[in-house]
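Table 4 source record.
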Amino acid sequence: MTEVPMDEEQLLSQVFASPASDAPRIALADHLTRRGDPRGEFITLALSEAKKPSRKGKKRLDELQTLHWTSWVGSLSNVLSDSGLEFHRGFLSSCIIGPKRRGFGTGLGPKGDDLSTVGGHPPFFSLATDLGEVSKDPHWCTVERLHMFATDQASEELLASPHLGNLRSIRNISLSTLAWLAAGPVRLIEKANVHAYHPPSESEASALIALGGLPHLEELDGFWALCQGKKATEGYAFPWLVDGQLSRQLRTLNLGVYAVIAMPDWLEALARSTSIEKVDCGDVQLVRDSNNRLAQLEIEIRGPFPGHVGRMLETLKIGAISTIVIHGTVGLARRPDTVEKLREHGKRLGATVQVILPAPRKKS
């Protein structure tokens, strides 16, 4: 019996059904190339570039993507910004949900509408296009990274799509939406960025403590607003973070620069965590030391001794930190008073102090 050749829709369906496999992409590329469709060249070249990148190949891919991307993503083109687009192995892999480039980042929508204060917090807004309808498009199947500029309701309409099962990273969602994801079916999401302006409700905190829907989540950031002037275990109900599954599962926690002053509280609160390898607070990072304790501070100093770092070091308990590693610029080498001050802090804490400076430039 002669095998009936598949049409483009059938070949696309196979790609969406097996996004990790190259075989259906190759079959589709061959079919499109025979028809003279430039997407055939794009997929073939993208598969080659994924294995052995070249400047010439990337340039050609960029040319084809700029010319044709809107016809390669189905109805998704109605809700995607034309900035931040990434294709991998010939298909959409990373994108931003938001307005087109014109007006993007200014608080204005595609038609100049003021969208800067939806929900009270810029720059999130409700898209005119129904994300619930767009969520039915199987072109989402290959997307691994998603950056949201939408309200909670619009975000959750989209994230409810069964076609987003390949999603690994989500940016710009609220703490409420993160809790919604945590309470839902199991997903492959490994990294989440939240805009956390308010503490979670009681039910949201329960979902975040259990974290049933996000068993693969390893990196979480976006807490600068909640940490501003607050302590780890006070004010904003942080027990949902330090006492729940998150503290046993996360590898990286980004709290933002405002958490530096509360470092003593975070040290105590995260002492029981066996998974967290790094707590990122901007120019101060808490990492594991040679004894696998979360007790090594990495501090970056570009200029004069930062006041907030000094206040943080003054409040640390003796023995809380084992090592302080200072990463300085050439300017720090010319400020022995700053280096000496850091060594004094280390001595009081019983910690080893290492100062790492760039090699001086050779005179020509």
